[in-house]
Amino acid sequence: MKIGIIGAGNIGATLARKLAAQGHEIKIANSKGPETLADLARNVGASAVSKEEAVADVEVVILSVPFGSHSDLATVFQNVQEDVIVVDTSNYYPFRDGAIPEVDAGKPESVWVSEQIKRPIVKAWNAVLAATLSERGQQPTDKGRIAIPVAGDDPKSKLVVMKLVEETGFDPVDSGELGSSWRQQSGTPAYCTELTAEELKAALEAADRSRAASVRDTLIKQFMEAGATISHDDMVARNRAATA
Q1: 151 beta partners
Q2: What total of structural domains would you count in the chain?
């Protein structure tokens, strides 16, 4: 498939590398311009382009930008064909993105993103830590394979994204419509807890909307205070404990 990725941080760069390795034709862009991505693009097997080029002549666009930056992308999608699938990998953190009253009042993050770019989206790859995505993918037959939730309103688009999730080394789990994607937001049992498919399904069902934001803020405070001393496995363990 022809896939454009906007955002070249840990998640975007890893997706570019993994999907290129599966034979997909990848274009990658960031906010600073293609010249800043030349080395990364060469290393992962992608083409460095502008944001406008990243959404042109592709079948899928993956957005891997800070949550608050989506409002800046509306014009990028003005002339993109309706059948192009748009995937969002972001998460809302008020300390970084600034307070967004609609989201703070309970609007699912992905619904807000869809409204900003005026496009239907599929939510995927948001509920894994960067190191999980980069290092812990497995073969479909491997025992204990980690699962990733995928939410969206269009079944065909969601199936395409679920296939891509599988190609990155994880079991895709259909987590429902976009309006239910709060179940895979930060502060919920499905978020960054490295669960198998069956465990993830139970975690999505157990999500408590009323306490998710409080859990999110408590955890991020702990992680920031711990700094570099906190290990990846400890982060997963703390997410599991706080959301249990």
Answers
A1: 123
A2: 1
Contact partners, residue 176, CB within 8 Å, separation at least 6: 151, 183, 204
Phi–psi pair at 126, nearest 5 degrees:
-85, -25
212, 188 contact by CB (below 8 A): yes
Q: Are 6 and 54 in contact (CB under 8 A)?
A: yes
d(CA 18, CA 172): 16
Q: Which residues contact 223 (CB under 8 A, 6 or more apart)?
A: 230, 235, 238
Total Cβ atoms within 10 A of residue 169: 21
Threshold 0.85, pTM exceeds: yes
Q: Is residue 90 part of a domain?
A: yes
Question: Would 155 be classed as within a structural domain?
Answer: yes
In a domain, 148, yes or no: yes
> 3-state class of 61 per DSSP?
strand
Q: What is the CATH number of the domain that holds 102?
A: 3.40.50.720
pLDDT in tens, the chain (244 residues): 999 999 999 999 999 999 999 999 999 999 899 999 999 999 999 999 999 999 999 999 999 999 999 989 989 999 899 999 999 999 999 999 999 999 999 999 999 999 999 999 999 999 999 999 999 999 999 999 999 999 999 999 999 999 999 999 999 999 999 999 999 999 999 999 999 999 999 999 999 999 999 999 999 999 999 998 999 999 999 999 999 8
Bridging pattern class, strands 147-152 and 122-123: antiparallel
Containing structural domain, residue 99: 65-178
